Amino acid sequence: MGTEQRVAEVIEASSAEFVAQCYKLDQAPPLGSLVKTKDELRKIYGVVYNVETHSLEPGRRVVARGEGMETEDEIFRANPQLAKLLCTDFQALVVGHRQGDGLHHYLPPKPASIHSFVYTCQLEEVKAFTQSLDFLGLLVDARLPIPVDEVIAACLRCAGQAYPDSESFLIKAGKEMARLLSSDARRLNSVLKRLR
Fold first, then answer.
1. Burial level of 6, CB count in 10 A (0-12/13-18/19+)?
2. Considering 44, 87, 88, 176, which has the largest number of Cβ atoms within 10 A of its Cβ?
3. Whole-prediction pTM
4. Per-residue confidence band for 2, with pLDDT thresholds at 50, 70 and 90
5. pLDDT score of 126 more than 80
6. Which domain holds residue 82?
7. For the chain, how many structural domains are there in total?
């Protein structure tokens, strides 16, 4: 089992989602990744659905600085203050929690705590969480500012990497999506095309 990688800290939280600020610029987990927060009593699992890099100062826009430079690295070497003026945040939709020995694929009784550490889930934990696909209902019903079907497909592709036979997992997930989206063939086809 690998070492847990702490990547961010919760800066906003609600029952259904949390926003985390990354410790390093442009080092957010990929779209669809399973991440977790944890304290003494529970772990809260979320699926990354949006990543943003922006200025730390509200209302202050980032300006282009690379004219005459060959690489992006040169921009940061010439302007070392940028690493302190910019940040990368990501939003995660809560898809379950673990309390004691029980793993639950529904919303926890309380949201993640502000300043909770956020970790990327190791493949073993992703596999354990996705043995049951009950969490997909939360994703299917989510109202997100980006196309939710893209997030679902990215989540299933990421989860498939935890299985020795990823194709079997994706077939199982495709069947569950067919059940959840039985009345919406267009959405179902949209998700299934993105699983390839």
1. exposed
2. 44
3. 0.91
4. low
5. yes
6. 5-194
7. 1
